[in-house]
Design goal:
Low-confidence stretches: none
Largest sheet: 2 strands, antiparallel
GO molecular function, one term: L-proline transmembrane transporter activity
Distance between the termini: 55 Å
Number of helices: 24
Shape: globular
Strand order of the largest sheet: 1-2
Strand content: under 5%
Subcellular location: Cell membrane
Radius of gyration: 24 Å
Helix content: over 70%
Membrane topology: Multi-pass membrane protein
Order of helices and strands: HHHHHHHHEEHHHHHHHHHHHHHHHH
Catalytic activity: L-proline(in) + Na(+)(in) = L-proline(out) + Na(+)(out)
Structural class: mainly alpha
Number of strands: 2
Protein name: Sodium:solute symporter
Length: about 600
């Protein structure tokens, strides 16, 4: 498809502005590594919240979500629990405050704060750095797969070429160009560049989402939607079986459901709950989400930032997701039925943009989606080099080097990580495959050790190292042994293997230094099994009180998950014109908002920093 001149101009202008901004803030960012990776802890929480929301609004994820809405209907609202998306609720309620109190720069540096400096702590320090790099490489491959599919539908030029006998497709060429541009502005501006450009990107994406929602709402009637989908498509709830038969509508969707492995939806839901609890208690993984929490000014702002992310992300995003899904169902459905098998459903989003968005608005939307990709990608390539620079190079190789040396090494680290991630991307089969591996297998290896580190005093550095090592090995090997099983169903096995590694490490190694544990608990104050450490602290200070907020935090998390879900469902019910259910969701939104204001927000405002 040939874009109109005005659309191309809008996209080019956005790219130029982004690059100029990166160079503009480069002097401020290069002052020292704290300025480069955490922006000196001086960015207000609301900018970080908008940046965090923008960073989660990526093209690959949006393409996946549009496909899920198209195929599974209202039940697709549950599928983001695969990540699990409600880890943001746990972070908002208590984990953001716990993490921010550490005053460290990276998740690996946090290991020293938690476990000390013995051999086990050094091993743990290295293994969490390895995890951060592996997860970043996986996400780069995920982004590469999505942006390539997206770009080839819109840009008319054939950029395929051969190098060394290997054919590089147009899809891959476009992805390489966009990733190169993103890498340049992120290298120059660090966290300042990431946050600044993402705030601009968030505004751009919100406008685009509202436009798409309006077009879908005014172009498609409730009757057209009903005629285009199976009877159970509009039903949010489910039994053990999915009970969604596309025969006579778009027959090939049935094969897509079978391929995804989601036919036993009730069992899938139980797996998502099981996985979600462990993964959420583990806290944010060492990537852009953790980096933003550590970039806030204090624990109160860290908590408020996470709450804002939930609000501003879901409503505009699901206006767009639902809008594109129903436009595709109503107007592309008959064509897809005629096309038969072999349809790549992950291209529904770009096909819908190509077909339904008018000139001018198309350029704005494409710039917005491009911005979403660039923002998320930039966040990852800002976060990962922090581990190589601060936790490997500075700690073990050149502890007394100049700030200029550290910044230059961060440039080199970013480029190296991007190149290796792109090599992984060349061999990725689909966005859905990468999504399931990242959310289920890889994070299955992360959850056990990172949950226990918060709640159990006896969990030592050797336990952390053993659990993470066992988890990483299991996440790599187990999926290759069960190739016909969806990765989400392998999560319990990978988690058990990781737990075994944790327990072996704990009981083969000695307890960590009590001074380190006392400092950690006194500063962080998590709830959990800390009685021996609390007793030692009370010997020094009889007035010391432990954290007794477990029941309150659990209740707030349950209410918070319902609250978060209302922000997802409200735009969906609005676009598909189910006003009765919309009214129920809005009442739930109001009730849960009032409860959380009293039980969470008013409480954190009382904390003095």
């Amino acid at each position: 498809m040939n874009l109109a001149t005005i659309d191309i101009v809008i996209i080019i202008c956005y790219i130029i502005i982004t690059l100029l901004f990166g160079f503009y803030v480069s002097k401020k960012a290069s002052k020292d590594i704290k300025s480069y990776f955490l922006a000196g802890n001086e960015i207000p929480w609301y900018y970080l919240g908008l940046s965090n929301a923008s960073g989660m609004f990526d093209i690959s994820g949006t393409m996946w979500a549009v496909t899920a809405m198209f195929v599974y209907g209202l039940k697709s609202a549950w599928l983001p629990w695969l990540w699990p998306v409600w880890n943001q609720v746990f972070i908002m309620v208590f984990l953001a405050a716990w993490l921010r109190r550490s005053n460290v720069m990276t998740g690996a540096q946090w290991i020293t704060y938690r476990f000390g400096k013995n051999l086990g702590a050094r091993l743990s320090h290295i293994i969490v750095t390895v995890f951060a790099i592996i997860s970043t490489l996986g996400f780069i491959a995920y982004f590469f797969e999505g942006i390539g599919k997206f770009a080839t539908i819109f840009f008319p030029w054939d950029l395929s070429f051969a190098i060394g006998g290997v054919l590089i497709s147009s899809e891959q060429s476009y992805a390489l160009i966009i990733i190169a541009i993103t890498t340049i502005y992120t290298l120059k501006g660090g966290m300042y560049s990431v946050v600044g450009t993402e705030v601009i990107q968030f505004v751009l994406m919100t406008v685009s989402c509202l436009v798409i929602g309006y077009i879908a709402f005014t172009s498609v009637s409730a009757e057209q939607i009903t005629n285009a989908v199976p009877g159970n498509w509009k039903n949010l709830f489910f039994g053990m079986e999915l009970d969604l038969d596309w025969t006579g509508y778009i027959d090939s969707v049935n094969a897509k459901i079978e391929e995804d492995g989601f036919s036993l939806f009730g069992f899938l839901f139980m797996m998502m709950i099981f996985k979600g609890i462990f993964a959420s208690l583990a806290g944010p993984v060492p990537s852009y989400d953790m980096q933003r929490i550590l970039s806030t000014k204090n624990e109160v702002e860290a908590s408020k930032m996470s709450g804002l992310t939930i609000i501003v992300l879901s409503i505009p995003r699901y206006l767009m997701i639902t809008g594109f899904a129903i436009l595709g169902l109503v107007y592309l459905g008959p064509e897809l039925q005629e096309a038969g098998s072999g349809i790549d459903f992950e291209t529904i989003l770009p096909l819908a943009i190509q077909r339904f968005i008018p000139v001018g608005l198309k350029g704005l939307l494409l710039a917005g989606l491009l911005a979403a990709f660039m923002g998320t990608f930039a966040a990852f390539i800002n976060a990962a080099p922090a581990y190589l620079v601060n936790d490997i190079y500075k700690k073990y190789i050149k502890p007394n080097a100049s700030n200029k040396t550290y910044i230059r090494f961060s440039y080199l680290s970013s480029i190296l990580i991007v190149i290796i991630g792109l090599l992984f991307g060349f061999f990725a089969s689909s966005i859905n495959t990468l999504t399931l591996w990242l959310t289920s297998a890889l994070y299955g290896g992360y959850a056990a050790a990172n949950m226990l580190k918060w709640i159990w005093w006896r969990f030592n550095s050797y336990g952390y190292f053993g659990g993470m090592l066992a988890g990483l090995i299991a996440a790599t090997i187990v999926p290759t042994l069960f190739t016909d099983t969806s990765d989400i169903y392998l999560f319990p096995l990978i988690l058990v293997i990781s737990f075994l590694g944790c327990i072996l490490g704990v009981y083969l190694g000695k307890p960590d230094d009590i001074k380190v544990l006392k400092n950690f608990y006194k500063t962080t104050k998590p709830w959990g099994f800390w009685k021996p450490v609390i007793k030692e602290l009370q010997k020094d200070d009889p007035t010391f009180t432990p954290n007794e907020d477990f029941r309150k935090d659990v209740l707030n998390c349950i209410i918070g998950v319902v609250w978060q879900m209302t922000f997802v469902l409200a735009p969906i019910y609005l676009i598909i014109k189910e006003y009765y259910y919309l009214s129920i969701v809005l009442v739930l939104m109001l009730i849960t908002s009032l409860i959380l204001k009293r039980t969470w927000y008013d409480k954190i405002k009382q904390i003095k920093n």
